[in-house]
Amino acid sequence: MVTRDGRKIDLSVSANVIGAGKDADDDGYVEIPHVTSDGTLRIIDKTGEAMTLATDADAAKTKVAIGDHDEDGDDSVYYTTDGVLQITSIAENTTETPSGTDTSITAVAGVGDITGDGTPEVVYTDGSNIGYYNESGSENSFYTNSVGSDNGVGIGTPRDFDGDGTARIPIVTGSGNVALVNGSGSPETLMQSGNAAKSPVTAVNWTNGPDLEVIFLNSNQSNAPYYVTLDGTSNPIDPVTRTADAEAGVAWVPDAPLVLSNFTLANESGTIQASFNSSSDLNALEVTIDGPDSESLTLDAFNETTTNGRYTYTGNYTPTTDGTYKVTLDEATAVDGDTASPDTTDSTAVETELNVSGLNATANEFDLNLSFNATDQLSDVAVEIGGAEQASLTLDEFSTASSSPPYEYTGTYNASTTGEYNVTLTQATADDQVHDENRTDTATVEAQLDVWNFTLANETDGVRVSFNASEQLRETTVEIDGPTNTTLDYGDFAETDTGDGYVYTTTYDTTTAGTYNGTLERAVATDDDVVTPNRTANTTIGEPFEVTNLTAITRHGDLDLSFEATQSLIGVTVKIGGTETGSVPLDAFTTNDSSPTYTYTGTYEVNTTGEYDVTLTDATATDGRTHDDTLTTTATLEPLLVNATLTDATDQNAAVNESDRVTVTATVSTAADSVTADAAAFGASSITLTAIGDTTYRETIDVAVRNATEPRAIPVTVTSVSDRESGETTNTVLVDTEPPTVDAGANRTVDNGTQVTFSPTRVVEPTTRTVEHTWTVAGEVLRGENVTTTINKPGTYTARLAVMDAAGNIGRDSVTVTVEASETTQAPSSGSGGGGPSGGGGGFVSPATTDTPTETTAPPQTTTHPPATTTASEGNSVETSTRTTPEPSTTSPTLTTAARSEPPSHNVEMPFGDIFGVPRSATIVGITVAILIVLRRSNSR
Q1: What is the largest CA-CA distance in the chain?
Q2: What is the 3-state secondary structure (H, E, C) of 265-288?
């Protein structure tokens, strides 16, 4: 058999014919009807319980069934003998041959209501037709299309496929198709591939869906079991890995309900044992125990045994309190999902008889350790000690850590005499029960081996090892660890009997200097007493006490000190001298070393820069030896601030005014917590310098001072991580906000076309120096202290001079030039007049006004200006180049202008009219015309 969950059940039966199964004897196990090859008709369940019903059944190309056709409550088996229908009652084991049936029946399909009249019929086939035998004893043939029967007979037990209460018969047609036939003989074909073997089939809900499936043997797959659904889908039966016997085919075995039976209780020595039988293997169980103690048991508390397919479960529970206990078998779940809730109950009384057992006495040196067990918690006990000493013990000398039976009691009797001790437990009491059977044991307290006075000493020829023992020894183990190692045993020692014990001595021959550690690990007396005392001692051989490598390093304002010693120290003196004086005691030093050489490190806090002298004058080792050689070293604490500088950040000429910037730079000797500067001298508050490296800090600020003419510096302060400060003032940078005093000279009158030279009468710069002179004449910008130009149009002009000093300050003055017409000059016939280009280009531009001269006719001429070069500022040159200007129209004067240069590095504010040499009273239209003229002339060049 194969279950839907894939489990396989081997009944160990060889059958030619099988039929659908049914629990015919109500024992929870399904009986399966079958016929063996010799015609024996039997039924068998999965436990192996079998019953023979007949010995003359047809055994080839047939089928048998089980059911209750007459609905009397007892099942019968339906089969054929030589084609005649036979009905055998299982309960009475009697057989009858119904009258009026077909005498050529080949197979009995089963019992089912195929007519829909509410009563079952016995369905059979003669190999061609399908007929039935009804409750009135009449026979009816209703399907004449033949049933396939090559191997066996292709028919199965009638089942209700659509839930309407009327059964249909699954068959294999003569064409090898699977169909369902109703009581009127109408077939419904489910599969038309012709792959179904003409063998018995069956209807089973194999997929656990809403409908039944028909299981058949697939002739194209070596008669492997397949199923087909009502919609014609066909698939193999996966759990079956072997092919089936085509003559026997397949049959349906209904799922029997889970049955739990034979629930019983047993009570032995206070332990409750529950057991019951199950018709199936279980995977869950609930059993409840109620009484003085309550407990819920699951399947884990039970053991399972299996015999002939029957399952027996047994579980034990030991209450901690006497009384009546009720045990209930609440619920069980089988591995196939079936459940049963029998709610079966049984009761038993538990009364534990007090019993004391297991008295044990052992001696551990002079401690007599006692223990025994009791089935209940005791209220009193009496234990007698005899032999070498006499004593009586009560329950006060015993205790138990047990929380449930058996209770183990333990106690100790402290003996003081060697010898044999007899221990007798005479009586114990619990819950009014008395146990008075004597329990006895013995133990012997012997003189215990003891060792002491284990020492190591420094001898001239090595390490002397000695110890005392209370008994004569036959074994000993001593481990020596140090610069060299060894293990000493009993044979290495000399033994001396002192009358009150023994002394054992030896010398470990070694000349290697250093500290030796010894451990007396084990000793065994001649009477086999054993001790493992693990006593230790040490000594030092030839190890000089030295202190070396005194060092001092300055770091973050502290002196980091260190030195080395060959021994652990209990005292040291370190003196500090030089810039500051002090001392460093031993507790200021630490060492992480556990063996030589020991490195000691410590810190001494200093506050002043300079050189420090460090002197170690003496040191004392833990063994009392002293070191009095003087060790010295020095260390220098550098200033935190190495230097501080101030620079002109605008043009680096060391002179600034209120439009410039300065940069403060500090170099430090070690990492600083902060670097600040007081920049009030330059119009700023305290500033924090920004680190641009490990030792460099820098910040740039704007100059915001007026009315100052003097060199100024900035104080810088450095604070270390240990709060030490160092300060220094930077170099000075000249602050000059006063412009030069300028006198451009006297007014003058010149002829038209005459060269005019301009030179200042007086320039005074008391603080720095002048760096640039700029003249603006008739819209022309000329660079230099002394400049020359030619004005070709009569009129009155203003020549403006601007002088800039090294700090960027500008002094201004002007001179008036009147240009008169010469006799040969003709006035232009047309044109608006106006100056030449506005200039601009390099350096700075001085304010200028272009006067409107009186028109005078002048002959065409060419004016040549000599070159002039003026230093506008450090690193910038302004050059006035020579340029030849062709003659313009006869009505317009021509001006020769200086070459354009790069603008100065200082920004100078001036009125719009001054830039273009136009009088401030000029109209906007006039200014616009002047701009257009400049642009057109520039483009024409």
Answers
A1: 173
A2: EEEECCEEEEEEEECCCEEEEEEE
Could you say which DSSP state residue 568 is in? -
Joined together, the tokens standing for residue 785 give 């202290």
Q: Write out the DSSP string of 599-641.
A: EEEEEEE--S-EEEEEEEEEEEETTS-EE---EEEEEEE--SE
Cα(450)–Cα(529) distance, integer angstroms: 9
Give me 851's structure tokens: 């006067």
Look-up of token digits 């652990």: 568
CB-based contacts of 907, cutoff 8 Å, min separation 6: 659
Phi/psi at 490 (nearest 5 deg)? -55, -35
Cβ atoms within 10 Å, residue 305 = 10
Query: Residues 461, 507: contact at Cβ < 8 Å?
Result: yes
Nearest to 882 by CA among 864, 861, 901, 902: 864
Report the predicted TM-score, pTM, of the whole model to 2 decimal places: 0.40
Sequence length of the chain is: 941
Q: Round to the nearest angstrom and report the end-to-end CA distance of the chain.
A: 118
Determine how β-strand 224-228 pairs with β-strand 282-290: unpaired
From its phi and psi, is residue 841 left (phi > 0), alpha (psi between -120 and 50) or beta?
Answer: left
Over the stretch 179-213, which tens digit does the pLDDT of each residue have?
999 988 899 999 888 899 999 999 998 888 888 99
Instruction: Look at residue 866 in the predicted model and tell me its pLDDT.
Output: 36
Burial class (CB in 10 A: 0-12, 13-18, 19+), 118: exposed
Per-residue pLDDT, 5: 65
| Cβ atoms within 10 Å of 591's Cβ, excluding its own | 16
**β-pairing verdict for 748-751 and 810-820:** parallel
CA dist., res. 453 & res. 27, Å (int): 85
Per-residue pLDDT for 695 more than 80? yes
Q: Cα–Cα distance between 409 and 320 in angstroms, integer?
A: 17
Tokens (6 digits) for 877: 């040159």
Residues whose CB falls within 8 Å of the CB of residue 528, separated by 6 or more in sequence, listed in order = none
